[in-house]
Design a protein that fits this description.
The complex is a heterodimer of chains A (277) and B (655). Chain A is an alpha/beta fold and 277 residues long. Chain A has 9 helices and 10 strands. Chain B folds into 5 domains: 117 residues, no CATH class; 123 residues, Rossmann fold; 107 residues, Sandwich (Immunoglobulin-like); 167 residues, 3-Layer(aba) Sandwich (Rossmann fold), CATH 3.40.50; 77 residues, Immunoglobulin-like (Sandwich), CATH 2.60.40. The chains are: A alpha/beta (277), B alpha+beta (655). Chains A and B meet through helix 2, strand 8, strand 9 and helix 8 of A and strand 2 and helix 2 of B.
Amino acid sequence: MVSRKVYSGKQRAERRSKKVGSGLEFADHRDYSPGDDFRYLDWQVFARMERMLIRLHEEEEDLQIYILLDCSRSMSLSLGEISKFDQAAKIAAALAYVGLANLDRVAIVPFGEKLEQRLPPTRGKNQIFKVFRFLESITPGGPTRLNASLKQFVHQNKRRGMAVILSDFYDPEGYDDALSYLRYNGYEPFAIHLVDELEMTPSLRGDLSVVDCETGEVKEITVTPRMLARYKEVHQEFCRNLEACCKQRQASYFRTAIQVPWDEIVLRIFRAGGFLK
Amino acid sequence: MNFLAMSPAMWLTLFGGFGGVITLLYLLRLRRRRLEVPFGPLWQKVLAEKQSTSFFRSLKNILSLLLQLAVLALVLTAIADPRWTGDMAVADATTSESDERVVLPHHTFLIVDASASMQIGTRMADAKTAARQIIDSLAPGDSVVVARVDHDVAVLTDWSSDRDALHAALETITPRDAATRFTSAVELAASALSGLAHAETVLITDREAQPVTEALAGAARLRVIPVGTEVAGNTTVSAFAVRSHLGYRLEYAVQYTLRNKGPGREVTVHLYTDRSGKAQSRADFQKSPPQLTFKHTLPADAEQTFEHAGLALDGNRAALVVDATGDLFPVDDTAFAVVPTRKQVKVQLVGPENLFLMAALSTRKNVDVKRIDLADFQTTEGSDLTVFTGAAPAELQRGNLAFVNVRTGALPYDLADAVTDPAPLLVPPTAAAHPAMAHVKFVDLEARDFRPLVRKKGQEVLARTKKGQTAILAAATAERRFVAVGFDPIESEWVGHYSFSIFFVNAVNWFFREEAAFLRSQGLDAAWRVSLPWAAGQSVDVVKPDGKVVRALVDGAGGLAYTGDAIGIYAVKAPPGTPKALSADILVPAALYSATESALTPALLDFVPYVPRVETDAAVPDLRLAGLALWQLLALAAAGLLLVEWFTFHRRWTV
């Protein structure tokens, strides 16, 4: 997985770091000093310039990948066959696998009103089953408080990395501060916005009492085609605003409908976000 | 405007009922389906843009309900078949013959006189014929109530247009033996007709009754159909009583009064007695030949009283039947009376020697008086009457009791403080009808050595002083009957007064209900006044002369709350649980005794005669618009509003 920023990792992985080390990629030359390893002498330079120079290589370090999974009530509300949370979990598993295969450190951090019990950073492909079990154990519910959760996340984690936020971003307090926290604390945020097409264009009619599944607030409405069209516009505006906010904070943004098969979603994410090199 | 098919009150009732249901359903419809959504603020944003606080917006919220109520009002008004009867109803002279007219419904409260006088000749048949003509002339929408009146009114049908049902009710009317009182019937009719525009009361009668007031007749819109003609002559029994002879109780005196209307005539009076103890009607008595027969010559238009004394009569009841040639009204020729029972009465006089009292009690030959001292007194059982003088036992006794100037012992009444000043005695008007006070008057009598009696609930004051202090008390309960004298008869010099003996003779008669000798026959022209020995509020069975049993009550004053409707002897049965001493039947003889009814001369009453309706009288123009009647226009308007409501509802304009 590719990160725009280079983060210092503690272990060797496949990510190039700016450190000069014992990797395979040539980084630079320096003068030979007695005691240096003769294996790293650049004999070609010596043949041309009769100077004894040592080849320096880039140190390959691991990337810390935090998968922030929204497990609030709105994610589990399903108007169709599949819920946003189910799809998000699958995407999280796929991303985690890619990261683990890359020898990156992957942590899964569920959040809702606050950070929930996390899966600590883990490394190695054989940890994927641990990831699966952890994802299966998560029970979504409760309200969404992005700002408070990500603020807490930032304070708890000293090691920076990539923060992949899998959410519908339905937070009454908004998402601006949350993205800002990540961005300005050295994280590379990646927002994957999950949208249910049935939510965007609901097939409703008549007199209804709509109840916010997280706050319980009730609104009495009479749904007409005109109102539905307006609601769709409002929803699209919401998505556009989120995208604009991510762009402002130089956070990657990817929006997908959950009706798309999850494997297709993952491929699109990788293509669109440049996750893979 | 007139509503042919529905009264305004009914319209309002239906509108209120159905309107309430519509409103309830509307409110239930407002209950919305709950739907969970993931993010409410998006919907909030959509709604905020739509919200408007304008009056029109608020009105739109209930416009659907208003439209539905308007539809209901139009439908009900159409059903009520409105007809314009305002100024527009007064058509100008050029109204064409082709204009449709509609007859407004008419309501008739039909009262048929079923009193005793309607038995004469063909009066009842003529009345029914007139009633049938009224019923047969009913137009569609008209309605009639059939009622019967004699001394009371009975409504036989509800407002009905069903001719068969009305005829059937009419056929049940037969003349009874009671006199006529129209007032209650006309009052009922006036009440039934209130609020009805086209209505009247029709009374079919031989008019042998007291007239109703002009105001009441106007309120009831009373119209009269007279039947019957004057009858030349009639002989009536206006009074009849059998009394045991004052001196010798094994013989009786019979007294009766005959009234003759018309020319003088010879009459034969038959006196029947009944030995079976069961005869109640004239037919029952006439199963046996009369015991006595008297002949009289009655002068023209005169009333005479006859008395026959020293008669030995059999049985406990008697009937008097007058046989006058050519008499068309047999009902008032018969009267009934109860023959007082002959019985040997045992009286124990408890107290010091009192010759005056002994003499008074012994006036009647069937009374055996035995005197004992209070110390020797054991029980009241075995004696028909126990008289205490001066003192009573410590334990309150049961049975028939008399207390004469008793100051100590257990008494069924209370005593006030002694009065030192002599107090003049009098019989209050309310006590004059008591059997014990018959023919008793206190003239120049003062109560001396007097402790006023304190009356308890249910006890009757028979005599008092001018200052209101009770001097003589009487009461009858399930446990005891008693009379009490609160003053010393000797000191008061009452013993030398004629009323002293009469009082105690009356008292003895009352104890054994021999007041029946003075029990007047009850007339069938007024409410009965029959005194009963049982507690108020109890229900009793009354066996009528025809053998039928009806339930009646003992009223608060101990009287019978019932008035009969046939001549004869009524037997009032004691309520269940009555002690044996008080459980004998009370016989009530009843005769017509109505001068008005027996006059057989239709009274010269001012009345408005009934005139059959002419169909065009109530006809009003049936106004139309484009060939449509008003109700049709209203129905179309309702349908139009329904369409508007359906359209706006589906367009979500009115919700």
